[in-house]
Specification:
Elements: E1 7-17, E2 22-28, H1 70-82, E3 86-98, E4 103-105, E5 111-114, H2 117-132, H3 161-170, H4 174-179, E6 182-186, E7 189-190, E8 213-215, H5 226-238, E9 244-246, H6 258-266, E10 269-274, E11 276-278, E12 285-288, H7 291-303
Parallel strand pairs: 6-10, 7-11, 8-9
Antiparallel strand pairs: 1-2, 1-3, 4-5, 5-12, 8-10, 11-12
Bound molecules: zinc ion (ZN).
Length: 309
């Protein structure tokens, strides 16, 4: 699905600046600079995708006399964006992204189409609910990198970052703090796709716009237990807001989240929840316009209520 999209490029570049200092800076080209043209259907009847050979993007046509390198282009970009005159580009971590912005879709604008809804939508909801909560009880938001590649990194959920922050924050009271706390692991869920209804347990097919989805799995691919689910349902019911539940078909494999990783490391009661979506991991994903706001309202209410913790 990354074919034939207008791709831009952004990320971190490390340079040697004109004063001989090694410096990190961010770049974002903001306009389409690359594309992965698909092979015409006439030439490709089988439509398989080889990640090594089919996905390199086309970025420019270079005449034989032109010796410009990609590093030269990065230097120009850094100079115009950050005002840094780089002597040398020493390293970079850059990612392509779809240059098309988000849009509402549907005859009644029921849907929101955008890149990276899984899982920046939950990060956004978490941040908004934390910032708008009263602040009367302590709360912590952690947004981990590298979840889509297994979470094992210095910043990932399998690394020590959260535990170290709690050590520094709580000191000797860390274990007691964890015992009195609950973690809400928010990550999007698969809504039941009208064209592929058979991929869901017929009793557990979350519908877009019918509320956030409590994810349950007895093999602990999700960390929800009856208590964490009950607390969520209770607050949601009090606000008159909808919620749904998801259990994967017993004959299918199950996705997972960082919920079980963090629950297993810290020993904290955890709820796995997320808004339902279509096309997870596509370059353009789809959610219902109502579910994100519903989750925001419940999370904010949760943080405002010390009695439920
Ligand atoms: Zn994902």
């Amino acid at each position: 699905p990354w074919f034939d999209r207008d791709l831009s490029l952004a990320g971190r570049v490390t340079v040697l600046d004109e004063d001989g200092q090694v410096k990190d800076t961010l770049v974002n080209f903001k306009k389409p600079v690359a594309i992965i043209p698909s092979l015409a259907i006439h030439l490709d009847r089988s439509r398989t995708v080889n990640a090594q050979t089919d996905l390199p993007p086309v970025m420019m046509q270079v005449p034989e006399t032109d010796t410009t390198t990609f590093a030269d282009l990065l230097k120009t970009q850094i100079a115009s964006e950050a005002g840094i005159n780089a002597d040398k580009v020493l390293g970079y971590e850059l990612s392509f992204y779809d240059a098309q912005g988000a849009s509402t879709v549907g005859l009644r604008e029921e849907f929101l189409a955008s890149a990276r809804l899984d899982n920046l939508l939950s990060c956004y909801i978490g941040l908004e609910s934390l910032m708008n909560a009263s602040g009367d009880q302590p709360a912590l938001l952690v947004c981990n990198d590298h979840e889509e590649v297994g979470s094992m990194s210095a910043e990932g959920a399998q690394g020590p970052f959260l535990s170290n922050v709690l050590d520094r924050w709580c000191g000797a009271d860390k274990a007691r703090t964890i015992a009195r706390s609950m973690m809400i692991s928010a990550d999007n869920a698969h809504g039941i796709h009208p064209n592929y209804m058979d991929r869901h347990d017929e009793n557990h097919g979350p519908v877009l716009n019918q509320g956030p989805v409590i994810k349950v799995n007895h093999n602990q691919r999700y960390a929800t237990n009856s208590r964490s689910a009950a607390l969520y349902r209770h607050i949601s019911d009090e606000l008159g807001l909808p919620h749904q539940s998801f259990v994967v078909r017993s004959d299918m494999g199950c996705g997972s989240t960082i919920g079980p990783l963090t629950a297993g490391t810290l020993g904290i009661t955890t709820l796995d929840i997320g808004v339902p979506q279509f096309a997870m991991h596509s370059i353009r994903e789809l959610v219902g316009t109502r579910d994100g706001f519903t989750l925001y309202r419940v999370l904010k209410a949760y943080m405002d209520r010390p009695d439920v913790a």
